[in-house]
Structure formats: C-alpha cells, structure tokens
Amino acid sequence: MNGAGRSFVLTAAAPVEAPPPAYGTAISRFAASLFATPMNFALTVLSVGMILLIVPPFLNFMIFDATWHGTSRADCLPNAGACWPFIKAKFGQLVYGFYPIDERWRPNLAFALGAALLTPLLIPSAPFKWLNSILFFGVYPVIAFVLLTGGNLDLRNFLLGRLIDWQALAGFGLALGLRWTFWLDFIVSSAALTLIVLIGAILLGASLRTALVSCVTLFASLGAVLLAVDLDFGLRSVETGAWGGFLVTMVVAVTGIVVSLPLGILLALGRRSTLPVVRFLSIVFIEFWRGVPVITVLFFATYMLPLFLPTGVNFDTLLRALVGVALFSAAYMAEVVRGGLQAIPRGQYEAASALGLGYWRTMSTVILPQALALVVPGIVNNFIGLFKDTTLVLIVAIFDLLGQLRASFSDPNWATPVTLYTGFAFAGIVYFVCCFSMSRYALFVERRVNVAGRR
User: 312-325: b or e for each residue (b if 16 or more CB lie within 10 Å)?
Assistant: First the structure.
C-alpha cells in the first residue's frame, strides 16, 4: 500500500461540538432511575411503603399529637404524643447531672470556650492554625479542668506518705527519714529522669542537646499544668460524682477522641517499627486492648484497679473510666492508621530517604499526611463509635446522658405512658445530631483532600 501524502496527525484543533441534548426532563430521568427495571420498580415501591409506614406516625408522635406546654404529668395524659414538658423540666439534669445550679455557668463557659476554639480548627481557611491547635489541645483542657472541678488541688500539702531511708550516707551509716511534699518530689523526680535520659543519650550516641531540651520542655510543661490546677482561683470545688448528663458524655467522648488519635498513631508506627522491642510492645498493647470488651475495661478500671495500687493511693472514678476508654480507643485507632500506612507505596519512603529526610521528618511531612487522608472514614467511624459507647459508663455508676435520662424516669410526677418513649426519642435526636455532624464533616474532609480523584 502506498501511504504517501496521507497524514494521520492533526495539525489543528478539532472543532468544538455542541453538548448532547439532555435525556428528557428531570421527571423523566427521575422516573427512569426508579422504574427502569423490575427490580428497581419493586425496591421503589417497597421504599415508599416503608416511608409511609414509619414517617407519618413518627411525625404525629413527635410534633402533631405532642404536648408542648405543661407543668406535670396531668398535662400529658390526654394526648398520645410526646410529652415535651417532661424534657423541659428535666433538661438541667440531662445536661449537667447534679452539678450545682448556681455553678452551672462554669460548664457553660467550658462548652463555649471549646466551641470557640474548635470552630476555627474545622475551617480550613481560618488563620493561625498552629496557635489555635496549641490553645485547644494544650491550654483548653487545663482551663476546662479548672472550671469544672474548681482546681485548687492543694498539691503542696499533698504528702505522698513515703518514708525514704538513706543508708550509709557519706560513709557514716546515717539513716534519714524524709517525708517529701508533692512539689519537692516532682522536682527531684524530674531531675532524676532527666539525668537517666542524658545517660542513655550518651550511651546511644544521640544528641545531648536534643535530649536535654526535650526533657526540660516535657517536665516544664507538666509542671505548668500541675501548677495551674494547684492554684486557688476561688472556685467552689465540685466532685465528679455530681457530674452527669450530656456534660459527662462530652467529657468522656472528647477525652477519648483527643487522646486516642495521637496515641493510636504512635502505636501504629511502633507496630511497623524495625526495632523488635518497640514492635513487640506495641503489638502486645494493641492486641490486649482489642481482645477484651469495653465493658470489661470499665469494670477493671473502676473496681479492680484500686486493688493493684499502693495503700492510700486512689484515683477519681471518672478519671479511671477516661483512662480506660482512651486506651481502648487508641488500640482500635492504631489498626486504622496502620491500614493507611500500609497503603502508601514504597516509593514514597525511598523518595524521602533520597532527599535526606530522617525518620520523624519522613513520617510527619510525607507519609502520615497521605496515610491519614486515606483512612478518614475509618477514623471518623471510630470517633462515632466512641461517642455512642460513652453510654456504657452507666454500668460503673457514672450517669451520662442516657443514664441521667433513665434516672429521670423514676420521677412519679412525670409517670405517663409516653414519658419513656419521649425520653429515648430526645436522646436519639441528640446522638443522631452529633454523629451525623461528624460524618458530614468527614465527607467534607474527604472531598477536600480528594484522594480518589488524585489517584
């Protein structure tokens, strides 16, 4: 064949063609998607039937047949709908538990500060992200703790009760019994731990300056936190036993979420570490906490942990539950993050190594940003599960929103046939709004990082 004079390469842009006409009207396209096949037709009819079966009775109970105004059970008895005056009467307990009424401005202020600091973090275009992060994750927990508890832990007079014998001091065989206060013990313990770290840095050939700066920063920050909760701000002390309702739900959920993510990242990195000891300890920690139910964790932290502590040493019940929930959630979070780390191609590690980046620089600037973007759905799924699992603290006598609601049902002044359904409907709405908000924000983050579109 003679192909001389023929050209198969365009020398000019092809003419722009008009877009194809729309396939019918919006109604026809909608009908085609719902009734295109017999299966679609059957599913559409079934869905419409379920909607008609569920939605009208739900709306009647919640809105149209509900009682909106009243002061006692007598106002709700004539109607078959929800008894919203019951929620109004118990709203203070459902939010604050038995927190003193005249001190409820403190949790309100804590809620307001948390929302004010969290909102800019959730807005990508908001400025001063680093400062905002430090305030929210570093300063706000201390302020919230002082507001909710009253602070003034009086650590200076908190005697540890330890009798320390110094034998053969300076060769004289003297024995000194010293009863140290908290702050003296903290200073000496910090100095001793810093010395141990410096000795370890010398033996391992690490940078002494880095080790010293890290220790000083850590213990100075810890000392500042302890000093802040030790100062007397003139606030009335409120024991955690008086907390309850949505306040406890938010404290447990936020603490678990804030602690589980960074701890889970460290555990995931530890499980993939090339150091055998670090990898072994990380695997043991993760598998242990994933192998026991969260109810068992709460029971152990609340009732069995004090048996293993020294005599006279005890922790607050809510604090023990917070620690148990945070560690349990961190183990699950570690596996989610590890899945994201395994999805990163080997070439990313090699490229970072070729640029001369160290391990932590590689992880923080190259690997983790990509890995966390890949597992946003899994991370938020853990957060939502943790938020709903806060209801389990009721079994260890900590009254969260659901526990406080169940306690309110025992009030004979509001005993009606619909009180139980009204209370659980209100709790369901609260949990749905919180969980749905988290899921929608997760979708926003997914669209922003656009992981699928860049692959």
Answer: eeeeebbebbbbbb
> Helix, strand, or coil here: 124?
coil
**Token pair in block for residue 277:** 């000891």
CA dihedral of 95, 242, 315, 195, whole degrees rounded to 10: 60
d(CA 235, CA 212): 37
The CA distance from 288 to 436, in Å, is 31
Tens of pLDDT, residues 7-40? 566 677 777 776 655 555 667 667 777 777 788 8
Neighbours of 406 (CB within 10 A): 16
The answer to whether the CB of 204 falls within 8 A of the CB of 198 is no
Which residue, 409, 254, 423, is CA-closest to 325? 254
- Which one, of 132, 99, 98, 103, lies nearest residue 115 by Cα? 132
State the DSSP code for 10.
-
Question: Is 169's pLDDT higher than 70?
Answer: no
* Residues 430, 246: Cα–Cα separation, whole Å: 9
What is the per-residue pLDDT across 187-245, written as a single tens digit (0 to 9) for each? Answer: 777 888 888 888 887 776 667 787 788 888 888 888 888 777 777 788 888 888 889 89
Supply the angle between the helices 276-290 and 317-342 in degrees, to the nearest 10: 120
Give dist(CA 440, CA 403) in Å, integer: 27
Say what the pLDDT of residue 96 is. Answer: 93
Say how far apart CA 436 and CA 235 lie, in whole Å.
Answer: 36
Reported pTM: 0.80
Q: How far is CA 374 from each of CA 209, 411, 447, 451, rounded to the nearest angstrom?
A: 36, 49, 12, 7
